[in-house]
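INPUT
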Amino acid sequence: METVKELIQFMQPNQRLDLKAVALTHVLSLTGSTEGKDAILSLDDMLMAICGLTLDANATIAKDAVLSLINLTAEEAGAIKVFELAQQVQPRFVIADVAAKQISDEQAELADAWSMVLSNLTRVESLAPAILDTLEPTLPQLAKAFAKLDYNKKKCKLHYLAPIFCNLTQVPRGRELCCQPKYQLLEKLLPFASFEESVVRRGGTIGIIKNICFDVVYHDIILNEQDDILVAILQPLCGPEEFSDEDNEKLPIELQYLPESKTRETDPDLRKMLLECLLQLCATRRCREVLRSKGVYEILREYHKWEAKVGRDSECLLACENVVDILLKKEEEIGLDNYHSVEVSAEQADKFIQDDAAYVKTLLD
Amino acid sequence: MENLATKKNWTDEERLELAAQLDAQLDEFIDGLEKKRYEEGWPEDRWQEEMDKHPFFMKKTPQPGDEVHPMFEGLQKLKYDPEENTQEELALNYKEDGNFYMKHKKFRMAVYSFTEAIKTKCDNPDVMAVLYNNRSAAHFFLKNYRSALSDAQRALFYKPDYTKARWRAAQCAYELEKFDVCTKLCEELLEVDIDHKEAKALLHKNKMRKLEVDRNQRKEAAEAKRNLARFQKLRDALEQRAVKFDDQPINKRANITEQLLIPKFLPLEDYPVHLDAEDNSTLIWPAAFSYPEFLLSDFQQQLPETATMQDCLITLFAEPLPCDRTLSYRPDNVNVYYENRKAGRVHKVDSTKTLREIISEKGFFVSGGALLFYVVTKDTRVEQEFLHQQRRPMVYS
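OUTPUT
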């Protein structure tokens, strides 16, 4: 602990370059272990020194400092500590601001690293609202940076913007901003639900959709004239199978006549999330009717066959069957306008969960 | 005269005297001038005509071949002569012309004027930007979208924040179905002004059109694939049965093409041989039945290969032939033949055989994409004449 404390003096901005570098390298390796992290997190001055060095003129120093921050913020406690400390000192180091600036900078080499820091910070539910407030003005710019594939000229891919946006939609205001038609944020983000080159982007985008779907307020927006969100959900679940002309005409235009080369989402967790989105959308009668009219059943029919033979994830199969069960029922049978209004007691809930678990085991041979 | 150099105080009287003196001198001078009538003006009765010819007052531009007032030429020279104008002035002069033509919807003339303006290669980027932008507009109204887009983009090159030009470029890109270019331009417009209503609308319209075009392409590709698969199956069926075609040389087995299977007989045109849609394994043939006696033919558009010739005859004569006065053409009273053109012979058909069996006979060739049979009454002179007709074998080089 004492040795760690001693390092602090070598990590001041005006120190000799080689001393800073060596000290920082040592600190970075410390952040790789739990004890090391705890040690550093307990020393406010050390944390401040690290933050300070992220803005160092020397590229290697700055990089090591940011990498250290990534490790330190990886878990909730560390994230909270770093964030709050940064707020308190003078001059204020508004970490979210710094991160956003770097990410928006086309020439920033550390944009990816900072986006990982921000992703870690926003994941913490208690911090998300405050960070959202700071980031709100820059959201359109961040969306632009995300949507334009070669935005960053120093080879940063900015994939981690997806989880950042996703985390921000945990907060109601975040969802509100995403769905605001004026900035068309959602339109820019949605295509990445099928972005083959990065599971991080896909995962983040699908997470955004899921957060929005779980908030009934937005169901109307989701199932409006435009189909954007519905298409984003269905596209990863669609495959190359041919539908008849009649069935094709029902589908949203982007999903009609898909070619032989179409593949489905490879990550089962993501497939499950998409199916959960659909399940949420089945809550109200109006939405159910819209889903039926858009050929969702037909798509899931083919998807189920594929999942049983190729995907082979039993939880996905269950999730799919849950949706299909509802879609196949006639409205008179359901007799309910809104599933959310049904009350389920705790014992019933437990029994259902147990039944599901047992059923799931039988799904795959 | 008194010496005015010395400062003298003039009295009013003296001033008046001097004035009168000067007046008198002037009158004398004028009187002394040659007295002549003013003849250079316009004759009174033709002043309207002359007005119309004067470059300042003319109401119509002179057409080629008209006499022009010498001043007109002079003015033209002034306006368009590169020596009389700087580059920029010249460019602006042509630009004025162009704008004038635009206002009067003479777009081709406008293009010409702006082009001349551009040719001056003047140094002022703002002027060049406007010239390209305006020419772009002229092209746009002439529906020359490619030229309009190119000009609008050149305008943007000279002046990157030229919103009007960018908007026009976006519209051109849409018309040309360059969807990605249009999207990019609309987004640039919205970045500068998020409330640009038209850009928002175009962005949306463009996206929808792109989705449509993509979907149509996919649909066509799917159909083409289906057709190809269907044709492949048909081809396999024909090859399996070793069907022979008249239009193919005997030895060389060329590929069966769609072209080969198009029936040449007009009534059969729309019914090329195909596989039965239900069972996908029975061939359905178009056929022509020729009556040498009457020099006309009957056409059957869809005969399954499983039908026997007898079945076909029954169908053919279900109702008697209009020209068959003696009602001789009945299934039991006719012989059916087919020609083997290569060998120059005819073969008699066994009516109990199915079409498939007949087609597989050594001498049978599909002719003009269809089955061709000749029907004559049994043991008649008609039959004899038909049989003994001169037929030459076809020779292939």
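end of record. The two ends of chain B are 128 Å apart (CA to CA).
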